[in-house]
Write a structure and sequence with these properties.
Elements: H1 2-21, H2 28-41, E1 45-46, E2 52-55, E3 73-79, E4 81-83, E5 86-87, E6 90-96, H3 101-119, H4 127-138, E7 150-152, E8 159-163, E9 176-179, E10 182-184, E11 189-191, E12 194-197, E13 203-204
Helix pairs in contact: 1-2, 3-4
Bound molecules: manganese (II) ion.
Length: about 220
Amino acid sequence: MLKYTKKACQITDKMFSSLIENFNFRTEKDIEKFLKHQSKKYKVKPSFSPFIVVSGKRSNQIHGKPTKNKLNGFTVIDFGVSYNGFKSDMTRTIYIGKPSKKELQDYNKLLKIQKKLISLIKPENYYCDLDIKARLLLGKDKIYFNHSLGHGVGKKIHEPPWLRSSSSDKIKSNDIITIEPGIYKKNYGIRIEDTILVKNKPVVLTKSNKKLICF
Ligand SMILES: [Mn+2]
């Protein structure tokens, strides 16, 4: 049900803005705890558990679980909620401290690519081509992107259609998918993910700001 997915995405955005407004967290676990608490406040369930919160050197762990690791540098926060059984999925990467020129460059490059890929979602085309395009746009950085571009999201957090090079799924209007390119280097990782409704012009359902937030 689209209206439930939309509601899940709205709550996800609200949770993220209150995380930013109340930011005085010390560890990955602190962030996770806050988000879990928020989901209780909105009477929804986490769409998966634990949420992914990884900071500093650990930010390159694609499926990393939150630990007592002190927040430092890039911090990847991947979470979502389930509203009446329909799920949202969003990732924002924030920065604790002052990013280096190269880190900022990597973030802005990834953000530009994520937005570009969203603009290329067109019914009747194929999802595999979006995955291939993501790697083309990353250029020499494609070696740091070692997972698929995205997935369908609905009653399950990961379901068809699949956004990967081996996928034969055709893009269809009203599909709900994620676009989540990432860069995972030796010392840090960055991922930016939105839940998106496919239409002739794609509708981004998770609307949280994507400019790099630094604390
Ligand atoms: Mn996802």
